[in-house]
Amino acid sequence: MKAVKNITIEKKTAERFQQFSRIHYKTHSEALAGMLDFFFYNEISPKENFGPTGRRIENIIKKRINAVIAITRDMEKNKVNPTLAILQSLLEAADPKNNYSNRLRDYEQDDTHPDFYK
Questions:
Q1: CA distance 55 to 63
Q2: Cβ atoms of residues 21 and 31 within 8 Å
Q3: Please, are residues 31 and 17 in contact by the beta-carbon 8 Å criterion?
Q4: Helices 11-24 + 28-41 axis angle, to 10
C-alpha cells in the first residue's frame, strides 16, 4: 500500500474537487496528479489568465468576417459592376458582328416613317 498524507482544504473547495475527480478520474490522487502534471508539462501557472475565451474570439472573428463581406459588397456595387458594364459596352462596340452600320433601325422596317420611301 502506498503512503498517504492528509491535506487540509476548505469544505467548498474539497467538494468541488471531489465532484471533478469523480467525473474525470478513478481516484482523488490521480486527479490531483493529473492537475499538477498539466501545469508542469504545459509550463503555465494556475494564476495566469489565458486571455479571451473561445466565445469572445468567435465573436471577434464573426465581426471581422462581416466587415470583410460588407467591404466586398461595397466594392462590387461601386467599383466592379460599373467597370464591368463599361468593359462590356466597349467590347460590344468593338465587335464587328454588332456593327451599327449592319443594324436595321426600327424606322427602316416601318413604312410609315417618312424616310422609308427615299
A1: 12
A2: yes
A3: yes
A4: 90
Distances (CA, A) of 14 to 2, 20, 32, 35: 22, 10, 12, 15
Cell 462590387 locates to: 76
pLDDT at 44 over 60: yes
pLDDT recorded at residue 49: 79
- Count Cβ atoms within 10 A of the Cβ of residue 17 and give its class: 0-12 exposed, 13-18 middle, 19 or more buried: middle
C-alpha span between 34 and 42 (Å, rounded): 12
Nearest to 28 by CA among 18, 38, 43, 40: 18
Let me know: does 98 contact 92? Beta carbons within 8 Å: yes
pTM (2 decimals)? 0.42
89 closest CA partner among 81, 15, 35, 112: 81
Distance, in Å, from the CA atom of 12 to the CA atom of 9, rounded to the nearest integer, reads 8
